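Appendix C. Worked example: F-BAR domain-containing protein
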Amino acid sequence: MPEQQLLKPTEWSYCDYFWADKKNPQGNGMVAGFELLLQKQLKGKQMQKEMSEFFRERIKIEEEYAKNLAKLSQNSLAAQEEGSLGEAWAQVKKSLADEAEVHLKFSAKLHSEVEKPLMNFHENFKKDMKKCDHHIADLSKQLSSHYALVETA
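Step 2, the predicted output written as structure tokens:
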């Protein structure tokens, strides 16, 4: 059977490696379609981990910033000032407290609407992958043995 022409010869492409093992583009060995899918899933898993770490760090930064703004807004500097400067200073402190609250709410939203769903997805994905992993490997072996039988027939 002649070797199939690769559609994307310089890449590890699903469309080129799905049905059967092929020589890899670098010429050192064979690559199975199943292995290619597994590699893509592992890259996706790594990306998800990096995204989780990114958002966790962002949440931590927002919380720390909110805490520091709130602390700054409690500063007693010019507390005894009267007149228009006193009013302006009170407004500055109030706006700092309001901004601190906004950042704290934002960090809570990031946690509940981004980080938590991302972690739930990760846990569910892990469970699903464990269920499917052995089944797909068995099917891949069956497919290879069927190809071998067809070749010998």
